[in-house]
Structures are given as structure tokens and as C-alpha cells.
Amino acid sequence: MKLRPSYVLAIACLIAVLTLGEVKSVQAIDGIALDLGTAAGDTDVERYGITIKSDWNAQWFAEGDWYLGGYWELGASYWDGDKGRTGNGSLGDFHVTPVLRLQRKPGMTISPFFEFGLGAHVHTDDSIGNKNFDIPFAFGSHVGGGLRFGSQAQYELIYRFQHLSNAGLGDDNPGINFHVLNLGYRF
Hints:
By secondary structure, the protein is mainly beta. The chain has one domain: Porin. It contains one helix and ten strands. It has one helix at 5-19; strands spanning 31-40, 45-55, 66-81, 90-104, 110-123, 127-128, 131-132, 137-149, 155-165, 176-186. The strands form two sheets. Strands 1-2-3-4-5-8-9-10 form an eight-stranded antiparallel beta barrel. A two-stranded antiparallel sheet has the order 6-7. A hairpin with a 2-residue loop joins strand 6 and strand 7. The chain is elongated and about 50 Å long. It starts with a helix and ends with a strand.
């Protein structure tokens, strides 16, 4: 069986995440979430995914009611779109993303937050619909905001605007943007 380069890259990213110093341990899953997204612009693509989150052991600027923290996010999603001129109507996306989050300290019924992430994505194909990404790799960045709620702030609802692009590593770089809703549970 011949492994596609995208699978090899996905395995390498997973190994890197599990061995990086900011991750507390392999068992340190602090949250899980489901994603639902739709492409922005002229591309007809929906995405459905799942993510696991591992909090960093650090908080900065924590003197007031807010603090800056972060977490690692490891995720997988299925993109479903029209076959378009590329002849491909779906693909799988795997990512690892460090995320910085400015968050109000839990203790209130609802704790708002804002976040920014920039990570690596590997796709099972290099095209979907009318988008030919040229290579099955992309950098993904997102900005978002959300709320933690529940008796122990165990639930999260996040809106993200996400951009994926190969940053010019391939001959073509059309990029793709998504509006994403993320519903999560924190352990």
C-alpha cells in the first residue's frame, strides 16, 4: 500500500503535536467540540468536523477580570461540495492549531472570549468544486469570539471566520474562507 504524501504529512503533524512541550500529556484532553461551517464567497462547500482541545498551562495578563491563555486544537473535518470543474466534490481535512484566547475569568454565568489561531492543515485531495489548491496542504488562520456558559463554564459556543491558503507553496493559491460554528464541552 502506497501512502499519499498528505497522509504522511498528517501523521507527522500528529506526532509533532503529541511531542511538543506545551501539551501537558497525551491524555490531557480538556475539551471536545463539533464544527459546522459553510464557505464564504462563491464556493459552495459545507464542512462538518470534530476537534479535541488541550489547554496550555499558562495565563498571561491575569490581574483583572480577563486573561490571555491558549490551547492546542487537533481536528478533522469532512468538506462536502459540488464536483465543479475539478470533478471532486468532497475531501477530508486534518489540522493542528495553536490558539490564543483572551477570556473573561469564569465565575459569571456567561464568560465571553475572543481568539486567534494559526495552524497547519492537510487535505485528502488538492481540489474541491471549482477550487484547485494545487497541493493538499494549507495554512489555516481564524479569528473568532464566543461564550463559555453552564454551571461550571463547561459549554462553549464559538463563531469563527477562517481562511485557508497554501501561502504560495503551490503554483495555484485560490484559498478558501469559512464561517464556522463550534459547539464544545470542556471537561
